[in-house]
Each structure stands twice: as C-alpha cells, then as structure tokens.
Amino acid sequence: MKHPVRLERQNGVALIAIENPPVNALSTAVRRGILGALGAALSDDAIKAIVIAANGKTFPAGADISEFGQPFAEPDLPELCDLIEGADKPVIAALHGTVLGGGLELAMAAHYRIAHEDTKLGLPEIKLGLLPGAGGTQRAPRLVGVDVALDMMLTGAPITAAHAQRAGLVDGLAGDDLRDVVKALAAETTDIRRTRDLRRHLTDGAAYMARITQRRAALGKDVAPHKIVDCVEAALLLPFDAGRQVERTAFAECLATPRSAGLRHSFFAERRAAKFAELAHGHVRPIEGIGILGGGALGVRMAINCLDAGLPVTLVEQGEAGVGLVLDRIGAHYQQAVSAGRMSEGQGAAALTHLNLTTDFGSLRSADIIIEALPEQAGLRQAAFDGLGKTAKPRAVLATTSAYADLSELQRVSTRASEVVALHSFPALPGLDAMEIGVPAGVDPAAVTTAHAFAKMLGKLPIRSAAHPGLVGAYLMEAARRAADRLLLDGATPDRIDAAMRSFGMALGPYQAMDLMGLRQGWMHRKSHPHEPDPRYLALADRMCEAGWFGREAGRGYYVYAEGETHSVPNSDMLQLLAEERRSKGITTRSFTDRQMRDQIILTWVNEGARLVGNGIATRPSDVDALLVHGFGYPRGRGGPMQDADQTTTFQILRRVEILHEADPTGWDIAPLLRELAAERQNFGDLNG
Ligand code: 3H9
User: Fold this and answer.
1) How far apart are the CA of 538 and the centre of ligand 1, in A?
2) Beta partners for 99?
3) Residues 620, 269 contacting (CB under 8 angstroms)
4) Is 77 in the pocket of ligand 1 (CB under 6 A)?
5) 263 part of a folded domain
6) How many angstroms separate the CA atoms of 630 and 453, rounded?
7) Is 352 found in the same domain as 451?
8) Is the distance from CB of 476 to CB of 605 less than 8 angstroms?
9) To test ligand 1's pocket by mutation, which of 65, 74, 128 has the most ligand atoms within 8 angstroms of CB?
10) pLDDT at residue 547 is higher than 70
11) Domain CATH for 415
C-alpha cells in the first residue's frame, strides 16, 4: 500500500502531506505517518516551520470511523494533536474541502490555520452519537467562544470558511493558491501560538456558565449532547490537561452507547446500500426530461420531487378535467410552499414552468425516464407498458411506482426487457427518503445506473431490490402487518400496536404505514396469490378493502382521516369488523405489553429480512436496515432491526423465533439463513461485506 503521508522539505519549511483517499480519514496508518513526519521535521535543524496539508478532495474529514470499536492502536488522535500543539516550531494547517471532526481537531491543535475560501468546517461527531474526542471540546471554546463551539458540536452542522474566519477558527483565507500562501507564511512565521494557552474567551466566567446552564436545560435524553456540554464546561473550570481527561472519559462513554453503535452502523449502511454492482459497469444516460403517467397522489408527489430537483416533467393524465385537477394540486403545493416561506414566489413560479400537463400519451416520447403511477386496476399497467414500448424513445428507462407489479410481465408487454425497473418510494414524511429500485433479470446496467442517478438527483437514498412481490420494503411492511394481525386477533388494537412502535422510536406504526402506502396493492396481490388455509388468518385487511377503506388516500383505513385535518382517529367500523372476526373464530381476548407487541414485529423484520437476504432479494442485511430506517422511520440510532438483532447472537434470535413458532406454528416460517447463521455462529453484520 502507498504510504499515506509524505514529508517534503523546501526552503526551511517541512510539508506534511496526507494522502488517504477518499476523504483522508485519520486512520492508524495516517496517524503513524504524521507522527513520523512530525518527528523528522522537528529533529531537522534546517526546518524552521511545518505545514500540514492534504492531497485530494479534502483535509481529513475526521477520524476513521471504521476503526472505532477495534482494539486501540497508537498513536491515538488526542495524543497526536497534543504533540502537534506542543511542537517547538510553528505548525500551520492548510485547510480545504470538508474539514470535519478529528480533521478539524488536528487543525485546531496547529498554531495557525489558513483555509481555502470554499472550505466547510465542522464537528459532526454528535451525528455518530459521539463528541469531539481529540481535544476539540477544549480547544474550540478557546478559539471561538462557548456559543459558536456549542453550536458546532450540538448541531454537527458545518460552517463556511468566511464564518470560521469571523469566529476566529481560521486565521486567513486563500484561493486556489492555498499551498503557496501557507508555505510563504510558514517561511516567515516564528511565533508559536498554542490554542491551549488562549484565554480571551474564558475571562468572563459568569457569562460562560450562564450559557452552559441555558444549553444544558434545553437538552433531551441522548447521552452525547450532555457530555458535550459537560466537556465544554470543563474547558472553563479545569486546566487544559484535566479538561482533556474529562473529554477522553466522556468520549469512551459515548462510544460504548448502543446509540453510537447504531448511528455508526447507519452511516456505513447508507453508503453501502447506494453502492449498486451496476455502478462498476453501467454508464449514466443523460436525464433531461421525466415523463409521468398518472396524476394520482403518487404521480403528483413524484412530479413535485422532480420539479424541485429542477427536472422538466411531462405528466399525462386522462381527460381535461383530470389535467385540471393535477394542476390544482401541484399549484396548491407551490402556493403553500411560498406562503410558508419555504420558497420565493419566483421559485414557485419557475418550478411550474418546467411542468407540461397533457392528455397526450405521445408527449412521453421525449422523456429519458418514464414513470408509471397509475391506479391499481386490472390490466391498466400492462396496457400502459404496451403503449410505452411503442412510444418511448429508444433507451428510455421505463419505471413503475408499484412495489407489487409483475416486472417480468411488464418487460414482456413493453418489449423493452432491458429498460424496465420499479422505482418505489415510501410514505411522504420528513426524513423518509428511501427510493427502492426493483431490478428484474435482463435489465441493462445503464438503465439501473440511470435510475440510481435519478434517485440521487431527487435527494433520495437508492436501495436495490431484486424483482419480488412488494420488493423489500412493502414486503417487510406487509409481513409486519401480518404479524401484528396475530396480536389483533388475540386482543390488541391497531392504534395500541402503532403507539407501541412509536414509543420504541419508529416514525410510524405498521398500520399507519399501511394506511399511508395504501392497502389496495397488497390486497390485489393476496387475491391473485391465495395463501395456505390458516385457522388464525385474520381477514380484516381484506374485508376493509372490500368496503373500500384503502387507507389515507380513500380517507379511511385503519384510521379515519377528516378532510384537511392532519390527525386521525381509529376507524370504529374497522374495530367492529375486528370484533366480528374474533367472534367468528371463538377467540378469548387478552392484553399485551408494549414489549410483547414490539418483539413480535421486530422479530418478524429480522426473520423476513434474513429470508430476503438468503433469497438474494435484498443485497445485504444492512440494506434491510437502511430501508427500514429511511423508508419507515425505524430509529436511526438503533441502526435497524438486523443491527438490533446483532446486539445478541443469531442463536438467541433463532431461539426467540422458535418459541414464537411453537406458540403459533402457522404464524412463523423460520428463515433458512437465520438457522444457518446461528449454526455457524455468525451474525448478520458478517454478511454486510
Ligand atoms: C471523529 O472524527 C472522532 C474524533 O473527534 C475523535 C477521535 C478520537 N471515516 O459520504 P461519502 C468514507 S468521528 C471513514 O459517500 P461525500 C465513506 O464511508 C468522524 N470513512 O462522500 C465513503 O466510503 P466508500 C467525524 C469515511 O463526498 C467515502 O468516504 N467525521 C469517513 O458525499 C465517501 O464518503 C465525520 O463524521 C470517515 N470519517 O461526503 C464525517 N468519512 O466510498 C463523516 C467518509 O467506501 N463523513 N468516509 O463508500 C461525511 O460527512 C462525508 O463522508 C463527507 C464526504 C462530507 C466527508
């Protein structure tokens, strides 16, 4: 492996250049390299000053997160920062790119900092359930004062170079000549200014403590924010080295929390999920215009997503009245965004100029990606894909928004087998930004990479699924609904189960999610794929669909949604149906604890997630996690159900599923992969690759 740190000497200045792509993370090898180069520069009498810089796209964007949890390797970053600060020759950091976490801490330990004017600087450790652990909590308040320091650490949001200069975090800005500017400065600098010795922000102790008290009072339950405030308080009250010791202990405590493990898992799960195999050999085709077929809720939502991303949209709807309705809906959306101050009037109007609403199917001819968002009606989708096969331009990607569509059938009727994918999105709630890309056999890798690029353009997290009824997301939610239905049969209610899942941290309970996604597709799939007879099958969802209670869009599902109101109440007619179902099966109801209800659902996700990975439908267990987090609001700080399961052993998980299976044999079909992993003493993380 190429050495990740190089030392160059020129005109009495030593340049320590870090080169560890992609983000110059401060791995063990990098820390060792810097230590060696620093030692060599300090012991060389010809060297008068030292510059620390990085090659590639950024100064280090932090400690190497993948090393957390592994055995400790010397030198650790706090120690390295102390050595840099203690150097008896001036050390200047040349900053560019995203100077984050440990990277910024390294820079704060240098005696001076010059940044490229486009640099972003931040302390995002809190997003990993951590705190700056390499002296950052002690040096930042000394450099920028308690307020800016706490803002940076408690929000994790980066600041611009100009802001950093105003705040005193950097000493000067430069353009593309950053290296030359810094080398010239180093050649003439003799003063050593150690951050640990700065006092100017620590002189008014009463004001500092008042800010600490104020911030502490506003904190929630998470550990890291409290520890951050404790450390920043220690920066005032204790000598520097003692404050560093407080920080070291606090960092270790945060690192050991399940929340940090979950957030770190999520960080890598999101990046892994977006890595489709096709990216290695499929090019992205130009995406200049999107066609949407159908102006129902899904079509309208997709159109708005595209317009927001600056993509021109042609939306085809049946009849002039339909077109008018769609225009009203999209217009109302932008009007609301303007009134709420989310965009200017000009921006709202500009978005609408990119919208072409028409009844002419032929207008889809010029689109690079055509997205079918039609209502669920027998034969409608097939007819549409037949038409698209004849109309779409060559190499246009043809996508369905349905998770249950038979993709091979759509490949056949369109005669464009290489271009058909599913693009399935999730309930429209803040933070739910997954877009599942369903890929049947025979699709051109370029169609997949183009769909992937499209998802990214919309600001979505693309997650791959093989062709499968429900893909991964809707399948898992339907499985959760089936598992929860067993609880309904025995005495629980949908709102109690949803509340139990929300108290666990989910954005939505399974029944709320079903209402938002709509019950119709799952029902049609069940009708065309009858299940084995099961005396404990609860026909509630089927009976609700027969009554037309398809969920949120129909105004009624497990809940009733009053026009224009955001809150919902349980559907009393549905509860009536449930009571009838129980009576007809002679059930004596009992009560369940929140814990029992949660276990039933989470273990279902683990078991069914294992089945999907075992069958090659989901690429890896962490994709199942990313999908539950980004599709249905599983608490990101827990990582996802597979990561949650890995907090014990697969053997223990299997045992728990076996116990549930013994109690309810038709309710549980144990996934072969779960048995295999348990037998081989492996966990799900071993399959993430
Ligand atoms: C810390 O510093 C603790 C210290 O206070 C104390 C220590 C004692 N480590 O996001 P991207 C990888 S905690 C390892 O797709 P972008 C990432 O996995 C750290 N790997 O690119 C991906 O790998 P791959 C504080 C990292 O351009 C590749 O880089 N720092 C790290 O959209 C590209 O990433 C942070 O929390 C890392 N620190 O965004 C910063 N960072 O290609 C976290 C990235 O194999 N990172 N990778 O999939 C980020 O916010 C973004 O990655 C960044 C680039 C903005 C830098």
Assistant:
1) 47
2) 121
3) no
4) yes
5) no
6) 18
7) yes
8) yes
9) 65
10) yes
11) 3.40.50.720
| Ligand 1 geometric centre to CA of 462 (Å) | 19
22 Cβ below 6 A of ligand 1 = yes
Looking at the fold, whether 225 and 357 belong to one and the same domain comes out as: no
Q: Are residues 169 and 293 in the same domain?
A: no
246 and 307 both lie in a single domain: no
Q: How far is CA 4 from CA 20, 56, 427, in A?
A: 5, 12, 44
> Please, what sign has the CA dihedral across residues 312, 316, 320, 323?
negative
How much is the average pLDDT of 300-325?
95
Tell me how far the alpha carbon of residue 374 lies from the centroid of ligand 1, in angstroms.
40
pLDDT at 567 over 70: no
Whether residue 242 sits in one domain with residue 96: yes
Catalytic residues: 105, 125
Q: How far apart are CA 241 and CA 263, in angstroms?
A: 29
Cα separation values, 45 from 42, 49, 499, Å: 7, 10, 69
56 and 99, same domain (yes or no): yes
* CB 124 near ligand 1, within 6 Å: yes
User: What are the Cα distances from residue 449, in Å, to 98, 313, 383, 455?
Assistant: 27, 20, 26, 10
Residue 582 domain flag: no
pLDDT tens column, 95-115: 999 999 999 999 999 999 999
**Long-range residue pairs from 243-249, CB within 8 A, at least 24 positions apart, any chain:** 243/137, 243/138, 244/78, 244/82, 244/135, 244/138, 247/78, 247/131, 247/132, 247/133, 247/135, 247/136, 247/137, 247/138, 248/78, 248/133
**In degrees rounded to 5, what are phi and psi of residue 287?**
-120, 95
Residue with CA nearest ligand 1 atom 54: 23
Number of domains in the chain: 2
